[in-house]
Write a structure and sequence with these properties.
The chain is mainly alpha-helical. 57% of the residues lie in helices and 4% in strands. It is built from 14 helices and three strands. Strands 1-2-3 form a three-stranded antiparallel sheet. The longest helix is centred in the N-terminal third of the chain and has 21 residues. The radius of gyration is 24 Å and the shape is globular. The N and C termini lie far apart (64 Å).
Length: 306
């Protein structure tokens, strides 16, 4: 009964996520699973409610139920995010007159601040590249581009030559949900991409379908994310850096250095391709920690009191 009642809403929500939000099939299925959990809860309670009949108190009981199932706070928060998206769809389609999720509280998540590299540490890692090897110039171009543009590792491996506007100082990046953004690129990265393309890339036999991919492996095919992860781990070890480092560390460092330098948070959000400003706000926490350490190291009164 409940499944039959909710089927049209789920179908409409699925189309909305694909067409309006341009989400991947995996993300769409995750959101639909959240709504499936809600309908399971309603069935267990014996509540034959449609979306417009649900009120805040019903959803609060649902949040308590998923907590009792033993889900982590992060999983609970993600499910509630799915519910909020569902009710945004219902509001957009005028299925509801009021959104019951507006006052629905998410579990408080502890935000762990990721390791960040200083500019000097990034230079040490890049300096550890053996440029006498065929892949040396490519690896330097990858790291210069990652740090210059704050790219996700998936965006680096998918970067296309047709998306490079180097004379204008920009690249076009295809991010999550196939959303495109223009990102400024620095002189070092531009120069190194030119060296890589003019030398080692020119000597590769490029596989069919990979002609427009910028960074290629020695067999002329696209790089994998794992290859970049292993390359960065290896270079960090050679540079004597013992922090927990991944490709994402370069993205975090890019954003942190911008915020520390006084960049507008909205501009950082735009360059990172974050859909929500709240995702970018973690860098204000990093910035405050940077300011606290600066005071502790350089302010005499602060040093005396600690």
């Amino acid at each position: 009964m409940m499944q039959k009642m909710w089927a049209p809403y789920k179908k409409g929500f699925k189309s909305w996520l694909r067409l309006e939000k341009s989400l991947s099939d995996h993300s769409v299925e995750a959101y639909l699973h959240d709504i499936e959990m809600l309908t399971q809860f309603l069935e267990l309670r014996g509540w034959n409610f449609s979306p417009e009949q649900l009120e805040l108190e019903h959803l609060q009981q649902f949040t308590r139920w998923i907590a009792e199932l033993g889900m982590t706070q992060a999983s609970q928060a993600r499910i509630l995010s799915g519910l909020r998206s569902f009710y945004k769809y219902c509001w957009a389609e005028q299925i509801i007159r009021a959104d019951p999720t507006v006052l629905l509280e998410s579990p408080k998540l502890k935000r762990t601040l990721p390791d960040t590299l200083s500019f000097e540490e990034i230079e040490l890692i890049i300096g550890a590249i053996d440029r006498s090897k065929p892949e040396g110039e490519r690896n330097k171009a990858i790291l210069e581009t990652m740090y210059s543009c704050g790219l996700r590792v998936s965006e680096v491996v998918g970067l296309q030559i047709s998306c490079l506007f180097l004379e204008e100082g920009y690249i076009r990046v295809v991010g999550k949900g196939n959303k495109e953004r223009l990102v400024p690129i620095g002189e070092n990265a531009i120069r190194q991409i030119g060296i890589y393309r003019g030398h080692s890339r020119n000597f590769l036999t490029i596989r069919p379908g990979a002609e427009d991919i910028l960074f290629l492996n020695r067999r002329g095919g696209p790089l994998s994310r794992v290859m970049i992860f292993l390359m960065i781990k290896d270079l960090a070890a050679k540079a004597g850096i013992r922090k927990s480092i991944s490709p994402h560390t370069f993205r975090h460092s890019f954003a942190t250095h911008l915020v520390e330098g006084g960049a507008d948070l909205r501009a950082v959000q735009e360059m990172l391709g974050h859909e929500s400003i709240t995702t970018t706000e973690i860098y204000t926490h990093l910035d405050r920690e940077f300011l606290r350490k600066t005071l502790a190291n350089h302010h005499p009164a602060f040093r005396l009191s600690h």
